[in-house]
């Protein structure tokens, strides 16, 4: 008797992955769970979300603490946000470039804040370095990628692109929250950054 079609397709072997690919997949699955549950998240929950057996985690990580530290290092790493900044079309008008950059940088900072908030207080040891680079070097790489986005407009800028990039990143990091006003959208933040606090009709 032929097995029902649904039974023939319910159990398909996952495509073979190298240990490094498997580690990366587990880390990407674990990060949002750690942001939600903190260090209390179980490896069983991570395995279910990744669609793998719990034992697979321990074939690429010595223990749960090593997995948590790998997730912290990934959150601190600038690799993802630098790729996003590099992918922004430099032929776009400057406000559009900066708005896309703001979205990418804010997403990076939100993820970083969630992980550090979940693990930074008793969640294990600080990784110390990020893929061989410290925090200062990571910040430098992000600033360099943003500087490249500003370079086409160097002649129109009041200050060198490198300094403008540092100022823009500083604004993103220190954007104040107020109870009675919504946060600025990336487009609004860029408008204030480029044109100041005065409205167009102000003298």
Please give a structural write-up.
This protein has 203 residues and is mainly α. The chain is built from ten helices and no strands. The longest helix has 26 residues, at 94-119. It is elongated and about 60 Å long.
Give the tags.
mainly alpha, about 200 residues
What's the arrangement of secondary structure elements?
Layout: H1 5-10, H2 19-37, H3 43-50, H4 54-60, H5 64-76, H6 79-86, H7 94-119, H8 135-150, H9 161-174, H10 186-195
The fraction of residues assigned to DSSP E strands is under 5%
Structural class: mainly alpha
Q: Tell me, briefly, the overall form.
A: elongated
Radius of gyration, rounded? 22 Å
State the end-to-end CA separation: 85 Å
Order of helices and strands, N to C? HHHHHHHHHH
**Mean pLDDT rating:** 83
Helical residue percent?
Answer: 55-70%
> Main beta sheet, described?
none
Brief synopsis:
The protein is mainly α and about 200 residues long. It has 10 helices and no strands.
